[in-house]
Amino acid sequence: GDSVTQMEGPVTLSEEAFLTINCTYTATGYPSLFWYVQYPGEGLQLLLKATKADDKGSNKGFEATYRKETTSFHLEKGSVQVSDSAVYFCVLNTGFQKLVFGTGTRLLVSP
Amino acid sequence: EAGVAQSPRYKIIEKRQSVAFWCNPISGHATLYWYQQILGQGPKLLIQFQNNGVVDDSQLPKDRFSAERLKGVDSTLKIQPAKLEDSAVYLCASSLGGAVAGPGGELFFGEGSRLTVL
Questions:
Q1: Which residue of A42, A99, A102 is in closest CB contact with B111?
Q2: Chain A residue numbers touching B31 (CB-CB < 8 A)
């Protein structure tokens, strides 16, 4: 079945460090891919998305490129801030808005 | 624009008791979802409604869980009787749904209802 695998956390970084959170997926057809973020005490919110191969989603300095050949959608940011501390979920939309979530990666950024 | 509203935020019950959660989606959103998020795991879909009809409830434990969406707006999720393994955060989400939203359509989540079963 459709699934998402993302790197386990926590990922601990110092402020201004480079961030990569790996995500790979298994799906039939042509899914859309998302990164959702959950800040402490808040609900899940969409961070960025890509709906077809080679699309790059970006928001708030984060980027991810939909790579069909490697079935990947890695999340990157060039310089993280303390306020980026959160749990990040890689998510697959197989169609008809049915989402499959990864297990989440907690990011901790220290000053 | 008001977001997805859920209540209660927290609930603690004994096993074998019952509990109900309520969700009010964003106005105009046709599709409503209930997810279960166990600590350390990603959210798992329990049930998906399109207006007031069920689209997918394949992962809903129907012997103890039930959900309804009257008039295609608000929804309630009930657990009766609760088990220890039901301790989780129950997330409600909504989206425009259907062909309008397409495969890239965004889901909007509420803050969740945290259930602890003792």
A1: A42
A2: 97
Q: Give A105's contacts in chain B (Cβ within 8 Å).
A: none
* Distance from chain centroid for Cα B79: 11
**Contacts by residues B11-14 (CB-CB < 8 Å, ≥ 24 positions apart):** B11/B113, B11/B114, B11/B115, B11/B116, B12/B115, B12/B116, B12/B118, B13/B82, B13/B115, B13/B116, B13/B117, B13/B118, B14/B82, B14/B117, B14/B118
pLDDT band for A96, please (50, 70, 90 cuts): low
CB contact under 8 A, A101 and B42: yes
> What 3-state class would DSSP assign to B10?
strand
B87: confidence class by pLDDT, cuts 50, 70, 90:
very high
Q: Do A44 and B45 touch (CB under 8 A)?
A: no
